[in-house]
Amino acid sequence: MSGHISPKSTYFTIFGALMVCTILTVVAAFVNLGDLNFPVALTIAVFKATLVVLFFMHVKYGSKLTKLIVGTAFFFPGILLTLTLSDYLSRGWFTSPRGSTSAAAITSVTGPLTTVHGRSSRRHRTPRRSSSHRSRRVCVLTLFSVVNKIATSITTGSRSSPATNSLGARDVGHHRCIADSRPGYRNSSARGS
Amino acid sequence: MIIGVGLMTVITIMAYRKRFSPEWYTPVELGGLYWHFVDIVWIFLFPLLYLVDRSHHIV
Predict the structure, then answer these.
(1) Does B19 touch chain A (CB under 8 A)?
(2) A74 in reach of chain B (CB within 8 A)
(3) Which of A153, B47, B52, B55 could form a disulfide with A41 if both were Cys (CB 3.0 to 4.6 A apart)?
(4) Closest CA to A55 of A7, A1, A2
(5) What is the ipTM, given to two decimal places?
(6) Which residues in chain B are closer than 8 Å to A37, comparing Cβ atoms?
(7) Is A69's pLDDT higher than 80?
(8) Which residues contact A108 (CB under 8 A, 6 or more apart)?
């Protein structure tokens, strides 16, 4: 293994830069920047990690193959974190009344609800319990059970579809009792907020 | 860090016993790589563990 011999001054310079960045991180953490605190801290951390990888790990003086492998090693965890965070950070953007965020529930359920209750807020959309909206709730609940039946038959497959069909028929008949006894139905908006 | 210090100790002893030469110093290189790998991990862990939400508590 024949590597590059860096002068000692390089190491001391990089060490000083890392210490300055650490102090900067601590100072920035105590300044209230709102939502920007987290990105600022991570930006400084990425800069420090780049310094360490390039100079302390001698990647700067390595071959192109080394640089490619190091790049991929950071690229794939980046994909992982990006996809995870895109899910986590988008929680509660769209919340259907049953707490589901599937596309089918959004397109077919939130449309009628918006027109029924006339609400502009998309988050807290719990069906009201007042009796004047009962007939409209019947329509909405029927829609729920249909969507629920479709989703259940999709997810469980055709093997258990007769059972869900009979349950679904009972669902439509006794919508009010089932809706009142259904767990998590009334508190469905709590997931989005 | 205990593992890293252990590696450094072993490498220091090996260097003291003249085990390394300009032609062969692979353990030094690999030990350094491990040390700085832990370094990078802690560069990210330090703000995430100890500095998150600091500003909101003192204001």
Answers:
(1) no
(2) no
(3) B47
(4) A7
(5) 0.80
(6) 52, 54-55
(7) yes
(8) A143, A147
pLDDT digits (tens, 9 = 90+) for A5-45: 788 898 999 999 999 999 999 998 888 888 888 889 999 99
A162 within 8 A of A170, measured Cβ to Cβ: no
Separation CA A181–CA A184 (nearest Å): 9
- Closest Cα in chain A to B53: A29
Is the minimum CB–CB distance between B40 and chain A shorter than 8 Å? yes
Do A30 and B58 make contact, defined as CB atoms within 8 angstroms? yes
| Residues B39-48 pLDDT 10s | 999 999 999 8
In chain B, the N- to C-terminal Cα span, in Å, equals: 35
